[in-house]
Design goal:
6 helices; mainly alpha; single chain; three-stranded antiparallel sheet; globular; 3 strands; about 5% strand
Amino acid sequence: MVEPNVKGRRLLSAEEMRAGVAEFIRRVTARNRLPLDYSVASLRVVDRIVDGLRSADAEQQAVARELFWLGAYAGEVFVRRAGAQWMDFDPAQRLLFGQVVGIRMPDGRVWNPIGKVAKRFESGPEESVQQMYFLMHGRVAAQRGRRPEAIA
């Protein structure tokens, strides 16, 4: 698997995020029985994992890889459940968000779930990934009998 934002390695593009997240989930759930099932409820699990890393007094640099992939997982939940799409940030967005990829909601708004996970690590519970989902503007409402990830 290509590692994100590591010296000497190429950065992931929006097109590579879904496959990268799937590999991360396969690797993580093979070792642990974490309920990372791409549900909105699983975003609370992300918050708790980040809190666990934070309470272990880990240096952010030491857990940067895990934080990136937890944020990417959150982004994939937004893609599947809220109608978002992965996007490559332009240079100005990269400077603003400190990331090369993010998500665009159906209404055109751009969000940075990877950065949100990093903020959760830095600041604690007031930066909830699950709350980010609930407060997002531009979500596609789930339609009865139709799976949200099927909405284009």
